[in-house]
Amino acid sequence: METIKDIARICGVGVSTVSRAINNHPDINPETKEMIMQVIKEHNYIPNNSARNLKRSESKAIAVLVKGITNPFFNDMIGIIEQETQRKKYSFILQRVEENENELDVAIQLVKEKKLKGIIFLGGIITHSSENFAQLDVPFVLSTSDIVNEEDNKAPLWSSVSVDDFAESYKMTDYLCKAGHRKIAIIAATKGDESIGKLRLEGYLKALGNNNIRPDKSIILHMEENKDSYSMETGYRLMKKLLKERDKFTAVYAIADSLAVGACRAITETGAVIPRDCSVAGFDGLEIGTYYNPSLTTIRQPVEELAKVTIDLLFNIIRKNGQHKKVVLPGELLVRESTREI
Amino acid sequence: METIKDIARICGVGVSTVSRAINNHPDINPETKEMIMQVIKEHNYIPNNSARNLKRSESKAIAVLVKGITNPFFNDMIGIIEQETQRKKYSFILQRVEENENELDVAIQLVKEKKLKGIIFLGGIITHSSENFAQLDVPFVLSTSDIVNEEDNKAPLWSSVSVDDFAESYKMTDYLCKAGHRKIAIIAATKGDESIGKLRLEGYLKALGNNNIRPDKSIILHMEENKDSYSMETGYRLMKKLLKERDKFTAVYAIADSLAVGACRAITETGAVIPRDCSVAGFDGLEIGTYYNPSLTTIRQPVEELAKVTIDLLFNIIRKNGQHKKVVLPGELLVRESTREI
Fold this sequence. Notes:
2 copies of one chain form a homodimer.
Chain A: H1 4-11, H2 15-22, H3 30-42, E1 61-66, H4 72-87, E2 91-96, H5 103-114, E3 118-122, H6 130-134, E4 140-143, E5 159-163, H7 165-178, E6 184-188, H8 196-210, E7 220-222, H9 232-242, E8 251-254, H10 257-269, E9 279-281, H11 288-291, E10 298-300, H12 303-318, E11 326-329, E12 332-334
Parallel strand pairs in A: 1-2, 1-3, 3-4, 4-5, 5-11, 6-7, 6-8, 8-9
Antiparallel strand pairs in A: 10-12
């Protein structure tokens, strides 16, 4: 098998000249180029085969499909998953799924094209039926997304790992109630959300109920479809709106830290002081929550563990060392500077 | 070509049962499984071919190689590059490069394995020779990394896009000098850095010189190799160290916003107020800089434009619509709440 160096030697030119010829570079004599291309053709040299070492005998890859990549929380997850994947000598394909796309169709297409060994769905999926999932014939793991599983009693066809978003959200809201807050606003996902956002809202409502607090719709703010995302900017904008109802709440719970940071900024800009004038809480446990002024009360998701369990579950199946299972990891309520008892 | 549905029909079982057989799932009758596997074999059914539609005739992919993925700035870049790649119907492979790995070797290997159409190097590379680069025989773009190009006069063998890190860093330092600061500490990259970190430090030193300020080594802090990263945590820790020399500076310039945020937190925890007691400036223009308390003075890198130009340059070469070029985009000095005149 010829390498680019062999071709250069045969042609009596430098490697960079061969590269210029291959890459259709303008800075090369046309005759030289023709000569090089002729040699390449004669020797059946395939440019892509220039690798010095072939470390792996087989091309192995897994893909991560992400819906809702805007939440910085997923960036941390992706970083760790990608690192673990490479440690296992697999390539890592990152695929965004648009809001209006069916992630299963995308996955099936990708498996075919890239000969994937496995798939991780990050966020998103919640309402697909088992029958749909069965069409995906490589192992897959649902990571940080929960599923309404129709067949809970059977051994599952896939693995999943997440915190219990409902229970953790309940925990946060209940903490705020026990701290004396009776008027707790929430910055929630879109109204049509069928995923994590829905579970976190339900946890909030349940905790209010158990503390004999009637939900006040005027302080339940939803993101807008096709406009808002899990970003600081959205938190800032929704909080500006909420501030028009300033007398209706003593605490704000945003269902993501990114939203909470934006909300904090909006409150601070009015001259109010957090938590003296208003408590703010988030969810996720982003690094920024530790370093923000004030530091942010939140539910910490065990991001490292979530990512590692995701990879372990997937590779157990790929290597036929285990069977699918559902793993629920505990979140942790971190009470920091941004909330107080009243 | 049989699909998984055909196999299920032929076997007289459900699709999910076929899937279980393929995936070596324990919850299936061994005889049923054997029967299914036999049918699969007879029909030459390849599980991976179950895609309902074959949207693309050819498998096309580009890869992004990242060194130093810890800086959140790269996450924004990656997100946009990935989105643009998918818009062009290419797959997107993300590959981390470890500190001790040669990114060119990784790239050459990856081109071979994945039949890549192009490569983007994000961060990192700066000191490789053109001869080394010439061995990479697919088009590539160096994004947000600057290169010491030995052959500046020839038409380049690759494209690059970045801000002028030296000039932008000079701009920030000069602004602090003109605001009356003569004692400006810096949180810089590792001492051995040969990349962006080095350029930013040089810009700082040059600006001090032009303002007749002698650099004070005791307030030039470097990250530690194999320990520190472009994270808030590192900024926080280095600032704690720097605070022992509290009388030696009136301003701190951190070469990344992530570091600056950590530094702000460390200063605030001493009871000092930013910018009254100390000015703090960053670099990058992360979203958090807008929403932090106080909002952060920084150099905004045009992240969207950087990512889009990166993709445009690469696809111009892939599609033979243009030739390689070096693009330098302007950064923008954003003076916000964290710095003041003294």
